[in-house]
Fold these 2 entries.
Entry 1:
Amino acid sequence: MSERQGPLARFRVIDLTRVRSGPTCVRQLADWGADVIQIEAPEGVDGADGGFGGARHGPDFQNLHRNKRSLTLDLKSPDGIAILKRLVEQADVVVENFRPDVKKRLGIDYESLSAINPRLVYGSISGFGQDGPYAKRPGFDQIAQGMGGLMSITGLPGQGPVRVGIPVADLTAGIFCAMGILIALLEREESGKGQWVQSSLLEAQIAMLDFQAARWLVAKEVPGQAGNDHPTGIPTGVFRTKDGLMNLAATGKAIFTRFCQATGAQHILDNPDYATAPLRSKNRAALNREIGEVLATRTTGEWIKLLNEAGVPSGPINRIDEVFADEQVQHLGIATPVEHPALGPIELVGQAVRLSRTPSRLRTAARDKGEDSAAILGELGYDTAAIAALRERRVI
């Protein structure tokens, strides 16, 4: 693929994933130039219609599956498995998120494929791990959010468990798996050998608890719901202004002092109940009320300008459309343009990390199903007649 560029352009990735965690992983590799071959079931074969992110020309599918080539392949047929194994011979990476028992039944587990290509880096994402008492359970993001503790610390105090508004377990499991794959590829340069990279929704969710998990592991403290108030950084939270709401983070003595001085709230700074961090934590409710009274006197825009100039972190609470209208977001260019043959010019969500010499790039929108089947099989040595015969038998 001569049009491929980027730091990962020398790597070929076989994408056997579906839903969100796996495609998120593969997207990281594709955006940096890897030759990704997405495997989907042919029309009329079980599994042909579901699990890839909604309608093919819809926003979710386009965002998840850009920068890939599409090959249809029936992995339940011997000929389909044979083609996959020929691909594996030339591949650097395979990524899958089947349940552990499914891939073994199909004969495409790590042990089977690494026997064909010992240099293969094999990435697996599961709900709960590749072994153990929950290994065969089906995984789903909200289940992991609940089991991993996130829902117990999300929401207003006493509200009851609340899911986060994005599939955070899916997304982070995919990103962690991509990181593991890149580490394995780096290690392969020394050893010459591939290895099995594993992540799971449950592990990713627990890792993302970060300091909340450490509060239990180190101090044996069970965190609860704190709503919009930061659990430990006080005062931090959502406050009402003259015309709406805003976020404020005035934690720490220096920033708290700057906040009080910038807002003319000397009475808050002089109050002995708020003199230290432990006292501000103990008297959080009263402190928030007094801050609220001050902030209610001006508009959100006025406060954000004044406070940021004073070195006090503050910001608006944007709807999604307001996010992409923000001048800094537009400057960063994370809404990235790409041309789609049917949809025309569209924008998708770009990468959140930049490389100065070899940036990520949206080369193509998501392909139509099987659009690249003939070209990929031709690269494997199949002639036109053989490809037609495979298509007739619905292998592709």
Entry 2:
Amino acid sequence: MRRTIGFVIISCMSSVLSVVLPSFATAVDRTAPMRAEQVTAGVAASRVFQLPVRAEFVAPYWRGNPRAQVTLAFSLDGVHFGKPVEAGRDEIGLARHDGTTYGAIRNADGAVAVRVVTDRPLGSLTVLGLSDGAITTHRTVRFQIAESSQAATTQPLVEPRSAWGADPQYMTWTPAFYATKKLVVHHTDTSHDYADRAGAESQIRAIYYYHSVTQGWGDIGYNFLIDKFGNIYEGRYSRDYAGANPSGDDLDGRGVTGAHTQGWNSGTVGIAMLGTYTDADVTPAARQALESLLAWEASRNGIDPQATQAFVNPVSGATITTANIASHRDYAATLCPGDAFYATLPTIRRDVAARIGGTTPPADTTAPSAPLSLTATGGKNRVTLTWKPSTDDTAVTGYQIWRSQNGSTTFALVADSTGTSYVDSGLQRRTSYTYKVRAYDAPLNLSGFSNSSTAKTS
């Protein structure tokens, strides 16, 4: 099922908007730049690292044995550990070539300890723990809405570095600028389970620290980043825009050189989708924002979005022939931007060309498939729901939760969820509740209902 119309956050729109979606807007707190603590030790096969403070994110890096298979398991109490996850590789760190292997940033959810397991001895491994600092500002996540019309080549709104909390002291490099000739898409190979914009910004701050300080790049590698809600963020520093919409250019319209694709950074713009898209494609909101950004960049720089052309690096003189809108893997031996997202690129190129040409792809009227295997588990004044996603979950924007009470045949919509679980709290004690769930996509096509499931609160 092909999806051609997506949701975007209100900040990404530049014209008339319509159809307010079921919203996930909540009040959240903005926090200060990241606090970093690290522990270093050798690991023969397995070792538990006690973290100095609770960490929201963890990234391992080590000297020697770059092909080592490393896993991490997190503990919130120092005793019980969760399921191991692969350490992975940070795609920007792969280009460092300093004898260090940089693992990917992983969600630690307040862990105080990390169990590291390796299939090869590591003489020196560091566990970097990252957490947000003190609360500084209160803000509200904006509503998601559907797009009715938009100028194809208008610059979408870009959240400046100051808005997501980029600490200026970490920016230690001197910007260089060249005419933009190629557009390169990435994924950050981090979690896409962040629940709101605050969570996305926290993850960006972690990436910023990891790239700037730990890896020594002096700034974040990407020119722009896009979260799953469709927010676009200024990445690599170019100049002070004095409140204007950041473009990533100097005053002459030349793009700033990032650190996103080794050997091909000058003359290219790197756009990273926040998350991992190996098995699942980006959300419709993220894709809508990406296509808006690509159309603007392509149109203003005279780039044919569907062409494959030679590119000469303006610094090294090296030449490569790639699609004008390409991915990291088209330039280097990497899995970035994930198999699922990579498979979408031909359609994205076509849609960007249509935007620039002033045409609109046909609206999607196909409903998603129904969610599966809904289960309800009762607790004190609450019921926890879990379900399996629609089989075309890559195109699903969210799920509606419907509830009836004490055997009633009348169901009411009580909540929405972007994931495949929900906790219905504040319920009456010792009361039976029955639930069913349905999916919806960007154009508001609704699936059929899942099976119903009943649970009794305690």
